[in-house]
């Protein structure tokens, strides 16, 4: 996108928010960089230069605009749409892998050498993994400076900086203000409990929240998830400890209230919440492709901006998908709740009714098969999945290889197309995952006048957005997953 100069200029002149995060505009005369929708008067085209990432603009010596805050724009949707090396690397960087494991750890997760990862990422994004992680640390620091009363020493450590001096230098370089000056520009934040932050998660409009939150709440596991005071709340397992998040649809953003055991997990928590709600999607591109279909088009036009509800933990959803095989939603929730009570990590939640973090693969590997109230065939399926996850043979995380993960799942006993594609849609985040055998999808297809044979052929027209088509098909049924819960 950033290499199409004329298209970028038109987007900047139109202040088109759809392109926020797709590219960044550097102004040669002022040495600042902006998002496409910056409200200031656009510079002359000859004074514009375009970069594929905020990190690349920063590396080239430009500072972030104080008006449009380009460092806080929605992420590029291509990292969620693609499954190649660079896209996988970007998802892992956003998940905090470079901060916790370094570039060598990133390369190991991807199965490539450090040199290969550096070369591919820099060629496409104009900056290497360290610079991209540094840009993310700067944004995390800004959030902590502006939304908490932490001392600057604590902010520096929580944001992942190795020293206060590096923190100060980076903030001045990126924002052209010292940390103290950044805090002085913001009105005093409301008092919150230690470790609690109130944030706004931006997204590209439009957003249709009904199925997004309805699905999460209707399938939520008691003790792990709940709908409380008009917000979807759940527990998170993060690198440095558990957390609780409350997500609420607001006008133009998602309200996010995070309570963290360790503030170093802030950027990872934000990344996982954005992934859960599919906030970096490009709804205009998706809807334009699907609305052109004569059968699906009216459904898309009636509810533009549908997103795919995903997950904060790929392993967790895979386990829940197995528990939900051939049973009702209520039964699946009951099975999952029993696992949580027996093997989950307890958490304290004074603001609601959350009690546990969903157990990880290591905890589930200790399960006594006789304690599982389910058919023997499903026990074997569950235990086979848990063993594969615990051994590290199956990767369902942010940087996973979608095709390899599908192959590993298909090789496990008890894994049919519905389970594999459900995991591909929710855990892997594949926008083209498809569930033609799902009962709700089959009923919707019949309602559109499609026979089973015709449906498979017709669905080819919806590529590469079949996961979004499924959301529209599900919406034709009268089910709680299609409705925003009552406040």
UniProtKB/TrEMBL annotation:
Q: Name one GO molecular function term.
A: zinc ion binding
Keyword hit for DNA repair:
yes
SMART domains reported for this sequence: AlkA_N (SM01009), ENDO3c (SM00478), HTH_ARAC (SM00342)
Q: What is the reaction catalyzed? A: Hydrolysis of alkylated DNA, releasing 3-methyladenine, 3-methylguanine, 7-methylguanine and 7-methyladenine; (2'-deoxyribonucleoside 5'-methylphosphotriester)-DNA + L-cysteinyl-[protein] = 2'-deoxyribonucleotide-DNA + S-methyl-L-cysteinyl-[protein] + H(+)
> Metal-binding among the record's keywords?
yes
Tell me, which GO biological process terms does this entry list?
base-excision repair, AP site formation; DNA alkylation repair; methylation
Domain of life of the organism encoding this protein: Bacteria
Q: Name one Pfam family in it.
A: Ada_Zn_binding
What the protein does?
A: Is involved in the adaptive response to alkylation damage in DNA caused by alkylating agents. Repairs the Sp diastereomer of DNA methylphosphotriester lesions by a direct and irreversible transfer of the methyl group to one of its own cysteine residues. Also catalyzes the hydrolysis of the deoxyribose N-glycosidic bond to excise 3-methyladenine, 3-methylguanine, 7-methylguanine, O2-methylthymine, and O2-methylcytosine from the damaged DNA polymer formed by alkylation lesions. The methylation of Alka by methylphosphotriesters in DNA leads to its activation as a transcriptional regulator that activates the transcription of its own gene and other alkylation resistance genes.
Q: What is this protein called?
A: Probable bifunctional transcriptional activator/DNA repair enzyme AlkA
